[in-house]
Design a protein that fits this description.
The structure is a homodimer. The first copy, chain A, is of the alpha/beta class. Chain A folds into 3 domains: about 40 residues, no CATH class; about 130 residues, Response regulator (Rossmann fold, 3-Layer(aba) Sandwich), CATH 3.40.50.2300; about 130 residues, Response regulator (Rossmann fold). Helices cover about 45% and strands about 20% of the residues of chain A. The structure holds a DNA duplex (16 and 16 nucleotides).
Amino acid sequence: MAEKAGVSLGTVSNAINRPEILAPETLKRVRKAIDELKFIPNASAQTLRAGKTRILGLVVPDISNPFFTDLAKGVNDAALLAGYVVILCNTDEDSEKEDHYIDILAGQNVRGILITPAHETNKRLNEISKRGIGLTLVDRPSIGLDTCSVEVNDAHGGLLALEHLYERGHRKIMCLTGESDIPQVAERERGMREAISRIPKADRPTIITQRIPMMTADSASTVMSEHIAEKGLNFTAVICGNDLVAFGAIRAIRAAGYSIPEDVSVIGYDDIDFAANATVPLTSIAQPKYQLGYAAAELVISECENPEKHAHQKIQFQPHLIVRNSTRSI
Amino acid sequence: MAEKAGVSLGTVSNAINRPEILAPETLKRVRKAIDELKFIPNASAQTLRAGKTRILGLVVPDISNPFFTDLAKGVNDAALLAGYVVILCNTDEDSEKEDHYIDILAGQNVRGILITPAHETNKRLNEISKRGIGLTLVDRPSIGLDTCSVEVNDAHGGLLALEHLYERGHRKIMCLTGESDIPQVAERERGMREAISRIPKADRPTIITQRIPMMTADSASTVMSEHIAEKGLNFTAVICGNDLVAFGAIRAIRAAGYSIPEDVSVIGYDDIDFAANATVPLTSIAQPKYQLGYAAAELVISECENPEKHAHQKIQFQPHLIVRNSTRSI
DNA sequence: CTGAAAGCGCTTACAG
DNA sequence: CTGAAAGCGCTTACAG
């Protein structure tokens, strides 16, 4: 072993963990040996001795969704900086899979878990905290759980979207979004109502709310086509639940013979990478996806490295409007 | 500890790992104690002793790319099935980050590594195999490395794209793609030449090859705009390096006042999810991304669980053509 | 079938 | 400043 450097194994350990206590000469020699032998400390042994891994678990409902992909990137980068590594768990919005993953993560002695629970909050999460594993909720309010959380101000996002359209002269606006029992959806609608309440009564726009079963392009396209077939184009703008929904809506509107943004303005949500590159560059409400993940990782890491000094906190980011070509003044 | 069951700690271990060698009576007693004390074996100690984790490392250049996202899903699912968990490493195409991650992975004693090296093949990879860690290359031929690999038949993909356009009457085709030193690019062009060689000489289409520095929409859009400004629309169809490139090309062609597919047919590559939902649904060459990841994971797992029975193998998938609205007959 | 013991590779007081 | 030694929690021959 690295004792070929002529020192004891304890000194090698100190060279790695507390280099300042070594004689400079010795340190140099040890480091040379480490390099030459390409010595990499065994994490299992370190963990066994120190009692702590440097592994985080990230549990998300759908890694195919660009939102979570960017978020995962943020988590990874923050983790790497702190010397942590992250195990990715994709639940496909399946609660059983989610529970299974949480058990596995606990068995691996992960130091902390970052999770966006698929449905409501998961009971198993309470046990996690009890076990001394850090926990922070991502993009979900921490209902009834004493943990950290990071989220985005959805009410403000809804307000931004509505104000943008109002300022451009739109008075008949469709809101194409998911079921109202989804926290995000409810919050955004609250923000829209807030925006409307600030407008003089006589000038307030009409809102046509159209729910879609899933937040996908296909689902949106179908619902939009049906709406137009039944009631015609009884709106001049659409606020969509996310960018994919916006793309689906645009497809349906075009298929009915109308143009974007000439006949209808469309605004998306999330500002996924593709929004800027879509054939009609999409106006959207941007969410700091990467930062959300980055902050969440910093939060758990701080929690597990200073459990006594740590106070649970909720970090809320602000969304902002990105204007592109899919909305125009009328 | 669980010796409250009145047995030695070695017996507890055997109860967990080799229950069949215990006296039924003892086993029962131990299990009861395990349940009551909610005993969960320490994975670090197990690993330290047995030398084997159930962790895989997945190293990709860019998890934001839908191609790798889908691939990661396949890896995750196959891993979960075999009781493995996967650490996700995103290198941003940075070789240093890649090396760093490989070291970390080695330190975590991962059982196997799945990697799409950012540039050529990484030297550090040789050491990985020496260390007894399973290794399989993903979407990269295993040049000079004695490992398993999974890939897609790129030559066939190029052939499919060209044949499709030829059959639809196109005789002036632009090939908008990356540098020829990228293995995938070279292979696809080889496939295109093969397709052309099968066509009667008099009827062979002309190919205009236009290289782009990066395989992104912006890069493609810029190059396409310049081309049209300089030489006009001297082609009736474009074969693109990937779907994002196709979107960029479409944007530029439209900006120049032409329509898709009326004036120009465009074919993408990868068939990312969004291709079907684009405003002009994109004809594309589909690659089995999920299956690629799934197969790769199965390969490493088989390698590390049966090192002696294992023979390195190369699995090659076939791409196929998905016809949508961005290409038409002339 | 069960227990005692060695040892996996580290970290960390504690002498010297 | 450095080395010798104990011990983290397991697994696994090896006696008995």
